[in-house]
Predict the structure.
Amino acid sequence: MPKRVYQPKKVKRIRKHGFRIKMSTAAGRNVIRKRRAKGRTKLAL
């Protein structure tokens, strides 16, 4: 049997998709703003 495709790594995930990365770009800030407007409990990650 081959290995499964997704081998999760917490640090890599946070560095790519975390809140601080989102806030560092204009597009990312837009995403956070939209998620806040929608009422999401989890804004990033």
Remarks:
- The chain has a mean pLDDT of 96.
- The two ends are 31 Å apart (CA to CA).
- The chain has one domain: 10-45.
